[in-house]
Structure formats: structure tokens, C-alpha cells
Amino acid sequence: MENKIIRYAQGLTFIPIFSIVSPFMALYQQTMSKSQDKAVETSVSINIERAEKIDAYFAQRGMPLEGYGEKMVTEAEKNDLDWRLVPAIAIKESTGGKFACGYNPFGWGSCKIKFESWDTAIETIAHNLGGNNKNTSHYYEGTTTEEKLYHYNGSVIPSYTGEILEFMELIEKQDVSKFKNKTI
Known about the structure:
Layout: H1 2-60, H2 69-78, H3 85-94, H4 118-129, H5 137-140, H6 145-154, H7 160-172, H8 177-180
Helix pairs in contact: 1-2, 2-4, 3-7, 6-7
């Protein structure tokens, strides 16, 4: 009986603590929610800018993958890849889709693999390069961009990695102001 009384008394000591802490918790949660919203807003803004850079690069060169920048950025983020990697490979392998093997602008599987759409090709290449396909993960999982490129085609063409890295830099430096002002 004495233990029950002690436990009851101990339980009562938490009531004042909850009444003091509760308003602070609500304020903390509000602040965190605003902070998270701001972080999401910033991330979305950055992704839009990245997609615009990709699309501007493709548009200025009349490449068929123009308009797929957002898809490439989304898939890169989903698969923990550098956002410039997928478009840079498409530039090198098929001039941004101009010389694609069907809907395979990446030369994936030595161009023997056919995709039903550009979207499917982008999803597949990002999924594989991200190390998320059990059949190819031993090449790509946990590797740097340079290592991914070596396994992708650098072991066959020694200059491949350097060429892709150059395309990645060109995409990053892309001026989107001309593209944004373009009337469609």
C-alpha cells in the first residue's frame, strides 16, 4: 500500500512539469515546422534551378532531352547521385538524345536495352548508378562519381571519366537567364 502511495505522489509531480513544458513544446514544434518548411522550400528552389540549367543546356543545342531536367534532378536526388551525372552521360553517349538507341540516350547495355520512354530510361540509369539494382550494385553502390564512371565506361575508354566530368561542369555553369526569357 505504501508503495502505491509513493508511486501516486511521484506521478503527481509530473503534472506541474507537463503544464510548464507543454507550451514550450508547442512553440518548439512550431519553430521546427517553420524551419523544415524553409528547408524544403530552399531544396525545391535549388532543384528548380538545377533542372533549368539542364534544360537550358539541352535547349541551346537542340537536344531531344530538353524538358527532362526536372526528371533527371528528381531521380538523381532519389538515388543519391550528383544531379549533373545523368544528363552528362546522355550528352556523351547520344548528344542529349539525338543519337539515342530508341529511348536509350545513355548507351545502357551497349544500346541493346530498349526503354519504353525517356522517363523509364532516366529512372533506370539513376537507379543503377545509385547502386540500387542488386544486379549492378557491386559496380555502383557506395562509389564516388569518378568510380561510377569508371565502371560505366571508363575501363574501356580511358578518357571517358574526364569527358563526363567536363560536361558536368558545363551544365553547372549554364546561364539560364537567356533560357528563362525565351518565349515558348
